[in-house]
Amino acid sequence: MKNQNPLLLLLTALVFSSAVCAEKADRNKPMNVESDTLRYDDLKQTSIFTGKVVLTKGTILIRGAKIDVRQDPEGYQFGLVTAEPGKLAFFRQKREGVDEFIEGEGETIEYDSRADTVKFIHNAQLRRFQGAKLNDEMTGAVILYNNTTDVFTIDGASAKASPGAPPGRVRAMLTPKPEANAASPQNPGTPLRESPTLGGAKK
What's the rounded Cα separation, in Å, for the pair 187 and 192? Predict the structure, then answer.
């Protein structure tokens, strides 16, 4: 990933303790889009959706002011999502085989089905939910989510790119994975038994 500002700091890739693997079936699902307008070029295999665009593809949900979609001869799709001024574009996808979702926002989002990556650009945010519970959250100037390698890579935010984050830094909140024996202790304790007495006195 190329830094566009000397203040940007390329941080070590973050890998969650459990494999972060996107829903594989999404690749073969049809793409459905709602928008105010559509310009489709069959020769170039491009589509430009504008105006409160909502795109779904399997468990993938994308929202933005404009989405440019291109399809190559092999059927891979490439999307460029642009947010309305002052707002952020949105991306959400379920993880494979578990009740977890990855969602993120940015002024611009790039989706590449060939490389199986999603890139959030400018005021980038990424969150991982376990059910309805927020587990991990991070912010930066640019966040690259790679479904194939299960890796998140974050560029530190510049003051202009992400006013909420310190220059040259990212912010991350990562929840540790609970220990396996924490949920099922070896000794649950002695079970309570019914007693004919109360306070030492017989009834």
Answer: 14
Classify residue 7 as exposed, middle or buried by CB count within 10 Å of its CB (0-12, 13-18, 19+): middle
In this prediction, residue 17 carries a pLDDT of 34
Whole-number Å distance between alpha carbons of 70 and 80? 9
- DSSP-derived 3-state class of residue 73: coil
Q: Can you spell out the DSSP letters for 127-159?
A: EEEETTEEEEEEEEEEEEEETTTTEEEEEPBPT
Which is it for the CA torsion 26, 27, 30, 35, positive or negative?
A: positive
Check residue 18 and report its DSSP letter: S
Domain ranges of the chain: 24-176
Q: What is the DSSP letter of 99?
A: S
Instruction: At 100, list the tokens.
Output: 């977890």
**Residues of the chain with confidence (pLDDT) below 70:** 1-25, 157-168, 178-203
77/199 Cα distance (integer angstroms): 74
Query: For residue range 60-85, what is the model confidence (pLDDT) as tens digits?
Result: 999 999 999 999 999 889 999 999 99
141-to-19, 81, 129, 170 alpha-carbon distances in Å: 24, 16, 21, 8
The SS3 call for residue 12 is coil
Note the CATH architecture for domain 24-176: Sandwich (2.60)
Cβ contacts of residue 100 below 8 Å, gap of 6+? 94, 128, 129, 130, 131, 135
